Amino acid sequence: MSAISHIDRVQRILLDNGPMTMRQILEEFQKQTRRVPTRNRLGNILSKNPRCFYEHSKTAVKQTMGDYRDQIVWAHVNDETVTARDGEE
Fold first, then answer.
1. How far is 56 from 25, CA to CA, in rounded Å?
2. Which tops the pLDDT comparison, 25 or 88?
3. In 1-49, at which residue ranges do the beta strands (DSSP E only) sit?
4. 85 inside domain
5. Residue 39 sits in a domain of what CATH number?
6. What is the domain extent for residue 67?
7. pLDDT for 18-77, tens place per residue?
8. 39 and 80 Cβ atoms separated by less than 8 Å
9. Is 81's pLDDT higher than 60?
10. Does residue 32 fall inside a structural domain?
11. Burial class, 25, CB count within 10 angstroms (exposed 0-12 / middle 13-18 / buried 19+)
């Protein structure tokens, strides 16, 4: 068993790399460890921990069929590289 929990690892990834989409977070997980959470588990980690993570923005990502789909860009609440949350000045 790993000494680092998935939540701790996600926090470290976002603090080290800045805001990222779920796909980017999962790719970074795969670089660091073999214990990678499922996409659903990662979504739960991000959405159910508002004291750690928030939806920074949305970005359009091209899908395989050529259409675009919005993906949420997640950020850590203590990320100093992010100036303000959406709607806050």
1. 14
2. 25
3. 20-21
4. no
5. 1.10.10.10
6. 6-76
7. 999 999 999 999 999 888 999 999 999 999 999 999 999 998 877 777 788 888 999 999
8. no
9. yes
10. yes
11. buried
